Amino acid sequence: MKHSPAPVGQAALRRANLSLVLRELRDHPSLSRAHIAEVTGLHRATVSNLMAELLERRLVREVGVEHVGAIGRPRRAVALYGEHVGALGMEINVDYIAVHGTDLSGRVLVERRVAYDAMGSGQDSAVRRLGLAAREAVEAMRRAGAVPAGIAVAVPGLVDVTRGTVTLAPNLYWHDVPLADQLSTMLGPLGAPVWVDNDANLSALAEYTSGVAAGTPYLVYLTGEVGVGGGIILGGELLRGADGYSGEVGHLQVDPNGDQCGCGRLGCWETKVGLAALVRAAMPEQAYGLPGMPVSDPDERVADIAKGLAAGDQRMARAVAQVGEWLGLGGSILANLFNPRVIVIGGYFASLAEWLLPHAQDQLRRLVVSAPIAQCRFVASTLGFGAASRGAANMVVNHIIDDPAMILDPPPGPALR
Ligand SMILES: [Zn+2]
Predict the structure, then answer these.
(1) Cα 260 to ligand 1 centroid, rounded to whole Å
(2) 10-80 and 85-202+388-408 share one CATH topology?
(3) Using CA atoms, how far apart are residues 95 and 32, in angstroms rounded to an integer?
(4) For the chain, what are the domain ranges?
(5) Assigned CATH topology for domain 212-382
(6) What CATH number should be reported for the domain whose range is 85-202+388-408?
(7) What's the CA-to-centroid distance between 281 and ligand 1, angstroms?
(8) Burial bucket for residue 304 (CB in 10 Å: 0-12, 13-18, 19+)
(9) CA of 270 to the centre of ligand 1 (A)
(10) What pTM did the predictor assign?
(11) Distance between Cα 224 and ligand 1 center (Å)
(12) Residue 127 to residue 121: CA distance in whole angstroms
């Protein structure tokens, strides 16, 4: 997250400094004041002064003593706290809604996923259902003692992040949905600033922050859902492109004679590797979109396939091998383009990784243009279907830390020392 330059003025300068200190505390379990002064370049007196305000506002707490060297004086350390400050992350996808609410320090307060047929319900009903889930999550977080300071929603599609509008979500059949405004209206006085972003971008952020390849500065994340999106981290930063629409890898055309995609084009990558494609090949009797099929949680469909594979079902094995090869082919295009160290595969890809990855890795190695690029490894995410909602909560925390003014307006509670 980039920090925009603050306007000149004492208050703005103070907030910029608070932001600097909070960022260091976000990135470390605990730090002493002297250590913070060293890494931020701020004066010791300034840090002590800022720390007094952060303690007063319960955004940090004393956590004991840091010993530096054998003869160094013990120094009192502080850690990010803010258990009264909530960050609510949400995701709406084709067949579920997920919520992940944390406090400022990342402690999880609410986490759940409910099966929901967002594809079949239509835009208005789906937005209403999302609003209801947001309201329930806000109330649960308030009961846990945290008032959400911001809400971020992950959506599988193109998002105009500055306006909070979903431009196009092909698999939800959404066009130009002013989602941030609609959720704000629905939440009314329970609300908080709402951001909307692409699910793969937010999942990539969650992976970079706390996933299996955390801290890897060149990383591609692939959502493995009905749709397939990509979040691309280059040099530790999310690649957004000129209009914020980069990463639409599911719509790379890999087969001009292939099936029609949700976007209307033919042979997009997700028509080969999306969950609907796998289900159609592995268990056609349960294919998506069949009339009368009840909506089931993606985990259940995937668990059925895993069970079949473990039992040696040949049709399923062929289906998974084929999807694995297509995964490797698309992965090789991404590896040639971005030269990532890892491609983290999420969603159902992760659940079936042991069957998919041998095929995918072989294919990638065969198709990339040079040996260094071939070092790129597919790695299964451990964050599960919750990656995007977790990344959304991470993004809210980042927004708060970039602009602490968001949470400095309420009156401070009793100091905790
Ligand atoms: Zn497409």
Answers:
(1) 8
(2) no
(3) 46
(4) 10-80, 85-202+388-408, 212-382
(5) Nucleotidyltransferase; domain 5 (3.30.420)
(6) 3.30.420.40
(7) 19
(8) middle
(9) 7
(10) 0.84
(11) 15
(12) 10
- Give the pLDDT of the chain (417 residues) as one tens digit per residue: 445 554 568 888 999 999 999 999 988 889 999 999 999 999 999 999 999 999 999 999 999 876 555 566 677 899 999 999 999 999 999 889 999 999 999 999 999 999 999 888 999 999 999 999 999 999 999 999 999 999 999 999 999 999 999 999 988 999 999 999 999 999 999 989 999 999 999 999 999 988 999 989 999 999 988 889 999 999 988 998 888 888 999 999 999 999 999 889 999 999 999 999 999 999 988 888 777 666 677 788 899 999 999 999 999 999 999 999 999 999 999 999 999 999 999 999 999 999 999 999 999 999 999 999 999 999 999 998 789 999 999 999 999 999 988 888 644 444 433
Cross-strand pairs, 402: none
312 CA to centre of ligand 1 in angstroms? 32
Distance 356 CA to ligand 1 centre (A): 22
134/392 Cα distance (integer angstroms): 13
Q: Which CATH architecture has domain 10-80?
A: Orthogonal Bundle (1.10)
Residue 268 Cα to ligand 1 middle (Å):
5
Rounded distance, CA 41 to CA 49, Å? 15
Type of residue numbered 86: G
| Ligand 1 centroid from CA 167, angstroms | 15
